[in-house]
Specification:
Blueprint (H helix, E strand, L loop, with lengths): L1 H14 L5 H19 L9 H4 L4 H4 L1 H24 L1 H20 L4 H14 L2 H12 L2 H32 L3 H21 L13 H24 L4 H23 L7 H4 L2 H29 L12 H29 L1 H21 L4 H29 L5 H29 L1 E4 L2 E4 L1 H23 L20
Antiparallel strand pairs: 1-2
Helix pairs in contact: 2-8, 2-9, 2-10, 5-6, 5-7, 5-11, 5-18, 6-7, 6-8, 6-10, 8-9, 8-18, 9-15, 9-17, 11-12, 11-18, 14-15, 14-16, 14-17, 14-18, 14-19, 15-16, 15-17, 16-17, 16-19, 17-18, 18-19
C-alpha cells in the first residue's frame, strides 16, 4: 500500500501545483499587449477606410474615435464592477467583448457594424487597468513593483510593436485578417486567464451606481467628442460648443451626485486626496507626451522629401522607426521598478516626465534625418516607461483596497484625456501652417516645431505636478488572494 502511495505521489503533486507568480504576470502582460494592439489596429489602413467601408472620410474617422470613447467611458465602470463582483470575472468578460468586437469587425464591409465592433474592442481596453489591479491582489508585495511596471508598459509596447505587424498584413492581405488575428490572440488570452489567474476573493459588494455611470458617460462623451471632432465641425460651431458646455455641466452635476451617493462609481473624496489628484494630473501630461509621437512623427517620416520637410519613408518603415519606443518601455520596466523601490515612485514619475521634456526639446532641432526621429521616439519611450511604471503604484498606495480597480480605471481615463488633447492640438497646429510642393500639402517645419515645443511645456507642467506629490504616503494594505479554483 505504501508503494502505491509513493507511485501516486507525483500525480497528486500535479493536482495541487500552484501557478508561479511569473506565469501570472506573463499572462496579465500578454492580455495587456493584446488590448494595446487593438488600439492601433486600424492605424495603418486609416487613409483607405473610406474606400474599404464605402463611406465618407468623416464617418470613417469614427472607427478610431469610437474605440477611444468607449475605452474612456467603460474603464472606470468595469473597474467598479471588478471591485464589487471579482476582478478575474470582469477581466474575462472584457476579453470576451474584445473577441466579439474583433469577429464583428472581421465580418464587416460597411461602416456601422465596423464602428460597433470597434466599440466592443474599446471596452476591452479596460483589461490593462484591471490586470494592474489584479496584480495587487495576487502577487507578493516584493514582486509587485516590477509586475506593475511590466503590465503598465504593455500599453506602449503593444501599440508600437503592433504597428508594423498591422502594416505588413494590411499591405499584403485583406484588411479583415487584422481582426481575425486580434480575435485569435484575444481567445488565447482568455484561456490563459482562465487557467493561470485565481478566482477573486477580494470582493467588496455594494450597490452599482447606475445613475452615476450614466452621468459619467454622458459628460465624458460630450467633452471627448467635442475635442475629437472640433477641428472638423469648427471650434466655434454650436455643436462643438454645445457638447463642451453640456459635457462640463453634466460632469459638475455628476460630481455633486457622487459625493452624496452611498456607493459611488468613483469615490471623489479618495480621488481628491493630494497623491491621487496630482498623479492623475501628471497622467494627463504623460498621455499627452506619449500620443504626440503617434500624431506627428508618422507624418514627418512619410511625407515626400521634395517638400524639404518630410523624410520620404514607407508606411512599414515608419512603423519600424517608431517600434523602439515601445520596446524600450518593455525592457526598461524592471529598472523602473527598482528605481521606484529604491527612491520611491514619485522619483520615477518625475524622471520620466523630465526625459519626455528633453526629448521634445531635442526634436525642435533634430528633425532632419530618420535617425533623429528614431532618437526622439526612443527617448519618449524611455520617459513614458518610467512614468507608466510609477503611476499605478502611486495610485494604489493612496487608495483603499475596495477602490483599487475603480481608481486605476480613473487614472486610465486621465491618460486617455491627455492623448485626446494631444491628437486634437496636434491636428490644429499641423493644419494651421502647411506648405504645398508639387501638389503635396504637408505641415511646415514651424508647425512641427510648435507642437514639439507645446509637448515639452506640457511635460514640464507634469514635472511640477510630480514634485508636489507627497514623498511618503501611508500605504493601503496589500492583500493576497487564496488559491481557490472553481469546482
Amino acid at each position: 500500500m505504501a508503494e502505491t502511495t509513493t507511485e501516486l505521489h507525483p500525480e497528486r503533486k500535479k493536482l495541487t501545483r500552484i501557478p508561479s507568480d511569473r506565469a501570472r504576470i506573463a499572462t496579465l502582460a500578454f492580455t495587456g499587449l493584446i488590448a494595446a494592439f487593438m488600439q492601433t489596429l486600424v492605424t495603418p489602413i486609416f487613409p483607405e477606410l473610406p474606400a474599404l467601408l464605402h463611406t465618407t472620410p468623416g464617418d470613417a474617422s469614427w472607427v478610431l474615435i469610437a474605440t477611444l470613447l468607449s475605452a474612456a467611458i467603460t474603464t472606470p465602470i468595469s473597474g467598479r464592477l471588478g471591485d464589487m463582483f471579482g476582478k478575474r470575472r470582469i477581466l474575462m468578460i472584457l476579453i470576451v467583448l474584445m473577441i466579439a468586437g474583433s469577429v464583428l469587425s472581421a465580418l464587416s464591409n460597411t461602416v456601422i457594424p465596423m464602428i460597433a465592433g470597434r466599440v466592443l474592442q474599446g471596452i476591452g481596453l479596460g483589461t490593462i487597468a484591471m490586470s494592474i489591479s489584479i496584480l495587487r491582489d495576487i502577487i507578493h508585495p516584493k514582486k509587485l513593483g516590477a509586475a506593475i511596471a511590466l503590465v503598465s508598459a504593455t500599453l506602449g509596447v503593444g501599440g508600437a510593436a503592433g504597428l508594423p505587424i498591422s502594416a505588413v498584413i494590411a499591405q499584403n492581405l485583406n484588411f479583415h485578417y487584422l481582426f481575425w488575428l486580434s480575435a485569435l490572440l484575444a481567445l488565447l488570452a482568455l484561456v490563459l486567464v482562465w487557467v493561470k489567474i485565481p478566482v477573486s476573493t477580494l470582493r467588496f459588494g455594494g450597490r452599482f451606481d447606475t445613475v452615476g455611470s450614466l452621468g459619467f458617460a454622458v459628460g465624458l462623451v460630450g467633452i471627448l467628442l467635442a475635442l475629437s471632432k472640433g477641428r472638423e465641425w469648427g471650434w466655434g460651431s454650436p455643436l462643438t460648443l454645445g457638447l463642451l458646455l453640456g459635457g462640463t455641466v453634466v460632469l459638475v452635476l455628476w460630481g455633486f451626485f457622487e459625493l452624496r451617493t452611498r456607493d459611488p462609481l468613483v469615490d471623489l473624496r479618495v480621488a481628491a486626496r493630494r497623491p491621487v489628484l496630482l498623479t492623475n494630473l501628471a497622467s494627463i501630461c504623460v498621455g499627452f507626451g506619449f500620443f504626440v509621437t503617434a500624431a506627428t512623427l508618422p507624418v514627418l517620416l512619410e511625407s515626400p522629401t521634395n517638400t524639404n520637410v518630410g523624410l520620404g519613408v514607407s508606411l512599414i518603415t515608419a512603423s519600424l522607426c517608431l517600434m523602439p519606443s515601445g520596446l524600450v518601455m518593455f525592457f526598461l520596466s524592471p529598472y523602473a521598478a527598482r528605481l521606484s523601490a529604491a527612491k520611491g515612485p514619485r522619483t520615477s514619475l518625475v524622471l520620466g516626465l523630465v526625459i519626455i521634456c528633453v526629448a521634445y526639446l531635442l526634436a525642435i532641432v533634430l528633425d532632419h534625418e530618420v535617425w533623429h526621429v528614431i532618437l526622439v521616439a526612443t527617448l519618449v519611450g524611455f520617459g513614458v516607461g518610467f512614468a507608466y511604471a510609477a503611476m499605478p503604484t502611486l495610485i494604489m498606495r493612496a487608495v483603499p483596497a475596495s477602490t483599487t480597480a475603480a481608481s486605476n480605471g480613473l487614472n486610465s481615463v486621465m491618460r486617455s484625456l491627455g492623448s485626446t488633447l494631444a491628437a486634437t492640438l496636434a491636428g490644429v497646429i499641423l493644419s494651421s501652417a502647411v506648405t504645398v510642393t508639387a501638389g503635396v500639402v504637408i505641415p511646415t517645419s514651424d508647425a512641427f516645431h510648435t507642437i514639439f515645443g507645446v509637448a515639452a511645456g506640457v511635460a514640464a507642467l507634469g514635472v511640477l505636478f510630480g514634485c508636489f506629490i507627497p514623498k511618503h504616503v501611508v500605504s493601503s494594505r496589500t492583500e493576497s488572494i487564496p488559491e481557490i479554483r472553481p469546482t
